Amino acid sequence: MNALHTGSSTISISEDQAYQTVIASGFALTDRAIDDRRLKHALMSDTCGALATFEGWVRNHNNARPVSKLTYYGYEQLALNQGKKLIEQAKAQFDIENAIAVHRIGDLAIGEMAVWIGVVAAHRYPAFDTCRWLLDAIKADIPVWKQEFYADSTESLWLSNNG
């Protein structure tokens, strides 16, 4: 993660600064590959016995059509603000210690990770429940859209993040 998205511009910062930002706020958009090992390491805590994660990848088909790539677009400042609020809400609503979520924007090839969510808690059930809740909330509330490109034609289709 070599860039932090804020406002409508991309600010180039060091990879360390980018990860410090996502760890501090709990949510980030990035145009770089997501380093899930680094995010998992950031969540580790001696007080937690459970880590639940979700990775969403770009698949090669949708609705019986061959997909060649996706391009994600986001209303960046609103997405960052809303993502931070969702992380705070998850911490208040569930019995967890911490949570982090990262969503890609830009062009993604088949097999690339588009979203990563990690939740740590003392026990597995709150971690699993929160991870699923965060995924559903991110898909419903974060202003990110995807443009789906097809291998069998030159057309593309715009979809909401939950479609």
Describe this structure as you would to a colleague:
- It comes from Faucicola osloensis.
- Pfam families: MoaE.
- The relative contact order is 0.21.
- Strands 5, 6, 8, 10 and 11 form a 5-stranded antiparallel sheet that branches. A 4-stranded mixed sheet has the order 3-7-9-4, with helices on both faces. A two-stranded antiparallel ribbon has the order 1-2.
- With 163 residues, it is α+β, with helices and mostly antiparallel strands.
- It has a single domain (3-160), classed as Aldehyde Oxidoreductase, domain 3, CATH 3.90.1170.
- The chain contains 4 helices and 11 strands.
- The model is unreliable at 4-11 (pLDDT under 50).
Précis, in short:
The protein is α+β, with helices and mostly antiparallel strands and 163 residues long.
What is the topological layout?
Layout: E1 3-6, E2 9-12, H1 15-25, E3 27-30, H2 36-43, E4 50-57, E5 61-62, E6 65-74, H3 76-93, E7 98-104, E8 106-109, E9 113-121, H4 124-141, E10 144-150, E11 156-160
Parallel strand pairs: 3-7
Antiparallel strand pairs: 1-2, 4-9, 5-6, 6-8, 6-10, 7-9, 10-11
Helix pairs in contact: 3-4
Key phrases:
Aldehyde Oxidoreductase, domain 3; alpha+beta; 4-stranded mixed β-sheet; 163 residues; MoaE_sf; single chain; 39% strand; 5-stranded antiparallel β-sheet; Molybdopterin synthase catalytic subunit; Mopterin_biosynth_MoaE
